[in-house]
Every structure is written in structure tokens, then in C-alpha cells.
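User: C-alpha cells in, sequence out, please.
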């Protein structure tokens, strides 16, 4: 939480340090997934963002924790964006579709918000 607060206060170096501390302190795949995803957000290059988001997805898929299900749409969208920045349009399109599919599996108001947000996105031509 402190990392997010620092990020929202426009203190990216502080946030990055806190996210790195979370990564160093993680004790399971779920915690690692969250930390890697937040670390990815503050990386200076698309390749670094891709690498951290790949790590986040790998750890999410290894986690034996249902909480990752609501996180998968965001992970796939982040991967899609990084792949698109790197000109890897096929991979970007795959992750865009995976984000949409994952959002369909999330129930309740949060799931509805995810689906509405994805539907409102400008269609991509990967």
C-alpha cells in the first residue's frame, strides 16, 4: 500500500524502492505476482516492463490462490501494452484477448467494471 501511495503522490523513486522491498520480502507466488506487476509499472523501458510482467504472470499462474483470478486481466493488458510498444503485435493481440477472456471469469461489481473498461477501450488492430 505504501508503494501505491508514493506512486499516486508522484514519488516514483520512493514507490519503486517500496515495490522492490515487497519483491525481496515475498514469501509465495501470490505476493511475488503482485510485487512484480507493480515493479513493472515503473520500469523505464518497454522491455523491462515486459520482463517484470512476464514474471508476474508466471508467478500468478504458479500460485495456488484464487485471488489471482481477478488480477489476470490487468496482467494480460500490461503484457499486451509492453508487447505492442516493442512492435510484437501478434503477442500483443494474444494478451489483449486473454485479458478479455480473463475478465469474463471475474464476478461481481469488479468483474463488471473490468468488462466495461475493456469494452470501452479503443479496438486494437494487432
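Assistant: Sequence out:
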Amino acid at each position: 500500500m505504501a508503494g501505491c501511495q508514493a506512486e499516486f503522490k508522484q514519488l516514483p523513486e520512493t514507490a519503486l524502492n517500496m515495490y522492490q522491498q515487497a519483491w525481496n520480502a515475498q514469501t509465495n507466488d501470490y505476493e511475488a505476482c503482485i510485487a512484480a506487476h507493480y515493479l513493472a509499472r515503473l520500469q523505464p523501458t518497454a522491455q523491462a516492463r515486459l520482463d517484470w510482467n512476464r514474471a508476474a504472470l508466471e508467478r500468478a499462474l504458479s500460485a495456488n490462490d484464487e485471488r489471482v483470478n481477478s488480477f489476470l486481466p490487468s496482467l494480460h493488458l500490461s503484457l499486451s501494452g509492453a508487447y505492442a510498444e516493442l512492435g510484437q503485435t501478434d503477442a500483443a493481440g494474444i494478451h489483449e484477448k486473454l485479458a478479455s477472456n480473463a475478465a469474463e471469469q471475474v464476478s461481481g461489481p469488479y468483474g463488471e467494471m473490468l468488462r466495461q473498461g475493456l469494452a470501452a477501450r479503443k479496438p486494437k488492430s494487432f
